Sequence to fold (92 residues):
Amino acid sequence: MKHLDNGMVSKLGVFIISDLTSKGMYGVFNIINADGETLIRQRCRANLGSTGISDDGSFAVCQALESTSKSDSCKLFFFDIKNKKIVMEKDS
Fold:
């Protein structure tokens, strides 16, 4: 990861961090446990905006901003960290 942004840590040490690549409108949202293991890596063909993680490290959210890519433009992603999956992907 080269262009880190929007890092946050839960009370249990699970943390989130965005990698805003230098390749234009492209970002990677990472959820990593206290041992340094990547639990979820969500690639978006859009710059990333706001992010958040629950206090207990169970859930996280990230916002993909407006983009020329129709698939990821203006989306909100909600993650179930324990089960390592997206539980909601919604156009914002």
Notes: The two ends are 27 Å apart (CA to CA). DSSP finds no helices and eight strands in the chain. The chain has a mean pLDDT of 89. The CA atoms of residues 44 and 55 lie 25 Å apart.
